[in-house]
């Protein structure tokens, strides 16, 4: 069975890339959150075949180049590797984002590439496809972006905040993780990136959980009420049996004797139900008063 994260990424991969600026922005997000991006090598590893199909088209559209290495058949679906090591290709890509290929790359986000809202959205989509994950909403609400470039992650966190989201950030080993735990934020972000079906799945799951939790609370309340009724009935029966054994029950007023008889015959009923069986019927408060009198008479025997 496909994971929820797999389904989300597959849905995102169906978003068409039409404008070159958006293709470059998405590829930029992929590169900043992929396995390796430096002046010597680009290495992207994925387990999602839909993302693997998208990458060659995306990089050809963005940079008019092809990968030096594509996934091999013997690697299977668990490890799909894309690689670029050609110096000219690397320089073309690196210079496209304002970096110096001959220097050690200190990766940060060049916001000049992300001036348009559509480009920012494409950039976030690429970052999520490359370094993102989202938990099945049936288990919990959690979406994260994990990258190895601290400064780029800080700037991405600021970008998300500027776009109206409320991310959190934490260091996990060598990785810097941006994450969301509130379902509403995850829904909004997935919708923004181009996965409205996945966002709707989260909303539906949340509603189902609320219904189930409400039903469970109602059932627990009902069980508690039943237990309370049974405990009270048991106490009342013990009092009535003690009165009967002592002969005191026959000396009580007729209404109390009638109440005692009804309780002995119907130990499972609530006071409201017993009240309806009286002849003539009485109120619950009246029945409760009679039961208290029976208990008081029984306590006098102690």
UniProtKB/TrEMBL annotation:
Source organism, top-level taxon: Bacteria
GO BP term, pick one: regulation of sporulation
Any single Pfam family the record assigns to this protein: HTH_WhiA
InterPro entries recorded: Homing_endonucl (IPR027434), Sporulation_regulator_WhiA (IPR003802), Sporulation_regulator_WhiA_C (IPR023054), WhiA_LAGLIDADG_dom (IPR039518)
Keywords noted in UniProt: Cell cycle, Cell division, DNA-binding
Single GO MF descriptor: DNA binding
Domain Sporulation regulator WhiA C-terminal: 215-296
All residue ranges annotated as the WhiA LAGLIDADG-like domain in the record: 121-212
Job of this protein: Involved in cell division and chromosome segregation.
NCBIfam families for the chain: DNA_bind_WhiA
Family indicated by similarity: Belongs to the WhiA family.
Protein name, as recorded: Probable cell division protein WhiA
Native species: Vescimonas fastidiosa
Species classification: Bacteria, Bacillati, Bacillota, Clostridia, Eubacteriales
């Amino acid at each position: 069975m496909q994971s929820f994260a797999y389904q989300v990424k597959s849905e995102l991969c169906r978003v068409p890339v039409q404008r070159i600026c958006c293709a470059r922005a998405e590829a930029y997000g992929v590169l900043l959150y992929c396995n390796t991006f430096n002046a010597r090598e680009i290495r992207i590893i994925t387990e999602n075949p839909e993302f693997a199909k998208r990458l060659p088209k995306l990089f050809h559209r963005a940079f008019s180049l092809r990968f030096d290495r594509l996934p091999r058949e013997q690697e299977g679906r668990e490890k799909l590797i894309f690689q670029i090591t050609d110096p000219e290709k690397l320089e073309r890509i690196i210079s496209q984002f304002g970096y110096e290929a001959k220097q050690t790359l200190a990766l940060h986000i060049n916001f000049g590439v992300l001036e348009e809202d559509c480009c920012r959205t494409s950039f976030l989509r690429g970052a999520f496809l490359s370094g993102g994950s989202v938990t099945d909403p049936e288990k919990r609400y959690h979406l994260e972006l994990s990258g190895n470039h601290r400064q780029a992650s800080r700037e991405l966190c600021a970008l998300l905040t500027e776009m109206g989201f409320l991310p959190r950030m934490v260091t996990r080993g060598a990785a810097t993780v941006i994450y969301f735990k509130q379902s509403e934020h995850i829904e909004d972000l997935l919708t923004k990136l181009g996965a409205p079906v996945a966002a709707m799945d989260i909303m539906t799951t949340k509603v189902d959980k609320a219904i189930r939790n409400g039903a469970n609370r109602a059932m627990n309340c009902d069980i508690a009420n039943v237990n309370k009724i049974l405990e009270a009935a048991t106490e009342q029966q013990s009092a009535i049996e003690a009165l009967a054994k002592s002969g005191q029950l026959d000396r009580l007023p007729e209404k109390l004797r009638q109440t005692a008889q009804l309780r002995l015959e119907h130990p499972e009923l609530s006071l409201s139900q017993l009240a309806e069986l009286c002849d003539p019927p009485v109120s619950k408060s009246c029945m409760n008063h009679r039961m208290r009198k029976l208990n008081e008479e029984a306590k006098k025997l102690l």
